[in-house]
């Protein structure tokens, strides 16, 4: 159901969280996947709060088929929140009918009446033994849910962007998020089919 958005000529995306979660890196990987892997246009605008680690930060990514003349995201089609502060700050800007993705242990989507997708990305990262990989898990989840970039392009960009020697571990993290996203979509499809058949 959200896959139709993959065909959009232009998508505006915001990843938000706090410093130390790898939010900017996730944005950079996404942009790289779009440009190098999928041969599209992409821009990245990053913003940090007053203090880097622990402060609010965001990565604004635009992906398009045509040259992008304005890199700032005003009305995100997709909002990815890995902190409550990020959700509170950006939820009012999200495009009507946009896609919201959250880390379910860190964000309560209070007051949001729309449909959203959640994953315990930080918890999964902790189970893998590396809390720092929550951003890569979220990126895998994002790729499965939105189809904004191809999975092969995203995997290659992850491998090229993470510290040497951690490629395999980060690849595993990405796949965990991807698989979780596919399972969520499948579950929703089943539910929708069940309702239609009722």
Describe the structure.
The chain has 198 residues and is of the alpha/beta class. It has one domain: Pyruvate-ferredoxin oxidoreductase, PFOR, domain III (Pyruvate-ferredoxin Oxidoreductase, domain 3), CATH 3.40.920. The chain is built from 6 helices and 6 strands. It has helices at 23-37, 84-90, 121-127, 134-146, 151-161, 167-197; strands at 10-18, 41-48, 56-64, 78-81, 99-103, 116-119. Strand 2 and strand 3 (56-64) form a beta hairpin. The two termini are 20 Å apart. It comes from Candidatus Desulfacyla euxinica. The chain crosses the membrane at residues 132-151. Pfam families: POR. Residues 19-177 form the Pyruvate/ketoisovalerate oxidoreductase catalytic domain.
What features would you highlight for this structure?
alpha/beta; 2-oxoglutarate_synth_KorC; Pyruvate-ferredoxin Oxidoreductase, domain 3; 6 helices; 6 strands; transmembrane; single chain; disordered N terminus; 198 residues; 20% strand; six-stranded mixed beta sheet
Taken in chain order, the helices and strands follow as: EHEEEHEEHHHH
- Fill in the CATH topology: Pyruvate-ferredoxin Oxidoreductase, domain 3
As residue ranges, the low-confidence spans are 1-6
**Number of structurally distinct domains:** 1
* Ends apart, CA distance between termini: 20 Å
What is the C-alpha radius of gyration, as a whole number of Å? 16 Å
User: Spatial order of the strands in the main sheet?
Assistant: 2-3-1-4-5-6
User: Quick one: CATH superfamily?
Assistant: Pyruvate-ferredoxin oxidoreductase, PFOR, domain III
Top CATH class: Alpha Beta
Q: How many DSSP helices?
A: 6
GO molecular function: oxidoreductase activity, acting on the aldehyde or oxo group of donors
Protein name: 2-oxoacid:acceptor oxidoreductase family protein
Pfam families: POR (PF01558)
Keywords: Membrane, Oxidoreductase, Transmembrane, Transmembrane helix
């Amino acid at each position: 159901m959200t896959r139709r958005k993959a065909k959009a000529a232009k998508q505006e995306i915001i990843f938000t969280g706090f410093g130390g979660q790898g939010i900017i890196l996730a944005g950079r990987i996404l942009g790289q996947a779009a440009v190098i892997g999928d041969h599209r246009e992409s821009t990245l605008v990053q913003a940090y709060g007053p203090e880097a680690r622990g402060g609010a930060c965001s990565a604004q990514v635009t992906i398009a088929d045509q040259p992008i003349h304005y890199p700032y995201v005003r009305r995100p089609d997709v909002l990815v929140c890995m902190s409550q502060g990020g959700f509170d700050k950006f939820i009012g800007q999200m495009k009507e009918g946009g896609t919201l993705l959250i880390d379910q242990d860190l964000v309560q989507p209070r007051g949001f009446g729309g449909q959203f997708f959640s994953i315990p990305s930080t918890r999964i990262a902790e189970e893998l033994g590396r809390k720092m990989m929550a951003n890569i898990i979220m990126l895998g989840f994002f790729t499965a849910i939105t189809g904004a970039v191809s999975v092969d392009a995203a995997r290659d960009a992850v491998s090229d962007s993470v510290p040497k020697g951690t490629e395999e571990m980060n690849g595993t993290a990405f796949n965990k998020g991807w698989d979780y996203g596919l399972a969520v979509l499948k579950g929703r499809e089943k539910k929708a089919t069940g309702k239609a058949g009722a």
